[in-house]
Amino acid sequence: MSLSQLKNKLRPIEPITFLAINFKKLIHSSCRHELRGIVSFVSHETSKSKLAVYWDMLVKCFSSCALYREYNSFQMYKRPLTKIRLFFTYGRAAYVIREMKSPQSEKIFNNKPIFNKVFAKFIKRDWIYITKEPSSQEFESFLQKHPVFVAKPPRENQGQGVWLVDSAQYPSKAALFVTLLQKGTTLLEERIYNHKDLDKFSSTSLNTIRIITLRLPDGIKIIRAFLKFNLSGAITDNSHELSFYCPLDFDTGEIIGNVVDQNTKEDYGEMHPSGFRALGQKIPYWDEAVNLAKECTLFLDDVYLGPFDIAITDEGPIIIEGNNVPSFGFQSSMNYPINPYMQLARKFALANKRSKNRNTD
Asked: Which of 103, 183, 349, 351 is the most interior residue, by most CB within 10 Å?
């Protein structure tokens, strides 16, 4: 048995994974310093001794296969052990996420031009991918139709490198083309505008809905849905500055929780930073958006976890992009059994994979 095969066998054994991931982190002095900082913070917050905090951290992280950092980020110190076991943690993700997509599908979700091509029926906007030797006619036709457009790097995440391009600001098409190549923003897309009811959240960014779906034996289940927007003037809703999210009701699409800063985790309460009440606002075309996310999850038969970003326009919802792995940090702000559903999806994926392998033998 090779070393990689041995690791794959041992990884699902949670006590071993717990020890491995924490030991690997704590051998670095910076991580030990961070650990002491977390313990001091929790000790101050809870009025418990540091020794008591260390013990509580050990028990709860061990029972949930969590990284020591998640004790703080998931606010485990505030929760009983019965709730802690429902968290989907770093250690569990190490052996569950790998089964959620085949390597072929991971490549599709990691490359935006390939994703646009494969999911063409859901994209519903013009786009081209330029290379060092493009069809000049294709590039010129795109500019003629969309003199202002969005340019993206083909592989970056979290809105990095995305910018709004006004072709009129360049002396020639050739100069613009060289600039796009130099910036590495070679995926060019038609600009999409918010539905009028969502434009009040931010009129500069494209405000999208993140819907996280799981494929289970009894169908598609939503495990998280939220609205994202940005107030820094950026055109993406997940820029590193002044990006916010609000949790949504799975059935109605209503905002059911507080406005939270994506980066600082500051809670703005029920009010939008500009002053209107965000709580209770309803997302237009919600049923259509949910159906779109479910349809995209089922589109490839080896995809079991579908984090999709969906824009809501005046004409209805469209897919902006798919993601391989969503952040699960939101679990700190909700009581929802993510881990049992993720484990069920893993078993379903493995069973289907074994069945497929038997049929091909």
From this structure: 349
